[in-house]
Design a protein that fits this description.
The protein is mostly helical. Helices cover 60% and strands 0% of the residues. It has one domain. The chain has 5 helices and no strands.
């Protein structure tokens, strides 16, 4: 459920939000996942029948293969850009002026797609309904005049 409420699987529309906040949300998945694993205990790493994944395997794969690469690449680069923000310019304006904003948002979208897949696998591993379709589809808003 934690994964489904974050920008990790909820689309970040082009001119909405801040990339910094999206990266922070992804980063917080490490602490949250570790806490869930700690509370759940070693049984989440128990073997499953062939073709099925256990919670521990999926959680580690999600963090190390989907989340960590995007954070390792973009966190330091964005931090350098943020350090150049002139006085009086909003964080949003400065971020939108970044030459790499399109590239980071594109990578965040690819990461979102990967995490949506992992969320579906996690639901199956935990024996709960897959709710990814309910959070990844944004309803069209009427045009504003």
């Amino acid at each position: 459920m934690e994964l489904l409420t974050r920008v990790a699987v909820v689309p970040l529309v082009r001119d909405e939000g801040l990339v910094r906040e999206a990266l922070a949300s992804l980063y917080s998945l490490f602490a949250t996942t570790r806490e869930v694993m700690r509370r759940a205990g070693p049984q989440v790493a128990e073997s499953k029948p062939a073709g099925q994944y256990n919670l521990a395997f999926l959680a580690v794969a999600l963090l190390n293969f989907a989340v960590r690469p995007v954070l390792a690449r973009w966190h330091p680069v964005l931090e350098e850009w943020e350090a150049t923000r002139p006085v009086g310019r909003s964080r949003r304006e400065h971020e939108q002026a970044w030459a790499q904003i399109g590239a980071v948002r594109a990578e965040l979208d690819l990461t979102r797609q990967q995490l949506t897949y992992y969320a579906a696998l996690l639901a199956a591993a935990c024996g709960v309904p897959d709710l990814t379709a309910t959070v990844t589809q944004r309803p069209e808003l009427p045009a504003q005049d």
